[in-house]
Design goal:
This protein is of the alpha/beta class and 258 residues long. The chain contains eleven helices and twelve strands. The two termini are 25 Å apart.
Length: 258
């Protein structure tokens, strides 16, 4: 596929979990990008009886929040999600809502702003006194959701249906990166992934990366990238692969035209 004439050959760095780069690759390849996957972790679903029982109880809560598509898919392996439920189910963003619908769940609410802050602005979570709330998630991350639900008066049950297993960065991917002569763009949709990346990148690659473009999936991640020493940071419309790819392409186009 020919890339646009006004855009140089460029590389999009994906920090998605191992085996989950395909959607970003599909979105970015038509825009002229070569996607390099730098997975700093893998997602490991839980299958034990205690988690299964905890999830069954959680799905009967007045408010059930799913933190990610991975949380939905892990939950769906433990319990049917298509069955009628008494409460209101909420998703952090459109991708999580789509995952719930793919499992047969109906009447899912999701915010336009696809992050924790957007979720917490939904009217269904405004007043929670006397209500049971459940958060279906993984250890680490999304701490502001749990804290806010409790602060608003909910009796909170957290169910970790999967875990993130840190990985060593793939040596072949690092070598591929060293050979890239064109500009890079880092797609940033996870604070934890960025921390794991920084802890492992060799000094020469980290220094080069900090001089490249970053597209952040939320204002919080944009601020985090600035705090981490990145200076060329722009905000994507959201965390979906197409949104990150379009923001990265816009950053490269603007840079090439300046």
């Amino acid at each position: 596929m020919n890339r646009p004439a006004h855009v140089p050959e460029w590389t999009l760095l994906s920090l998605r979990p191992r085996g989950q780069h395909a959607a970003l690759r599909r979105a970015a390849t038509p825009l002229g990008a070569r996607v390099v996957g730098l997975s700093p972790w893998a997602l490991v679903a839980r299958h034990d009886a205690d988690t299964r029982a905890a999830l069954a109880q959680a799905l009967r809560a007045d408010r059930v929040v799913f933190s990610s598509p991975a949380a939905v898919h892990a939950a769906g392996r433990l319990q049917p999600l298509a069955a009628p439920h008494p409460g209101t189910w909420l998703a952090v963003g459109a991708g999580t809502a789509a995952a719930l619908r793919s499992h047969g769940a109906a009447d899912v609410q999701a915010p336009q702003r696809m992050d924790s802050e957007g979720l917490l602005d939904l009217p269904a979570l405004a007043t929670l006194h006397g209500l049971r709330a459940a958060l279906v998630t993984a250890p680490g991350g999304r701490g502001v959701i749990a804290e806010t639900l409790q602060a608003r008066g909910a009796q909170l049950q957290r169910v970790d249906v999967y875990r993130r297993q840190p990985l060593r960065l793939p040596p072949r991917a690092l070598q591929r990166l060293r050979r890239r002569t064109g500009p890079w763009v880092l797609a940033l949709s996870s604070a934890e992934a960025l921390g794991l990346l920084q802890a492992q990148l060799p000094p020469d690659l980290l220094a080069r990366l900090q001089d490249q473009q970053v597209v952040a999936a939320s204002p919080r991640l944009l601020a985090l990238a600035h705090d981490a020493g990145f200076t060329r940071v722009s905000l994507a419309e959201g965390p979906l692969p197409a949104q990150l790819a379009q923001a990265a392409h816009a950053a490269i186009t603007t840079s090439a035209g300046s």
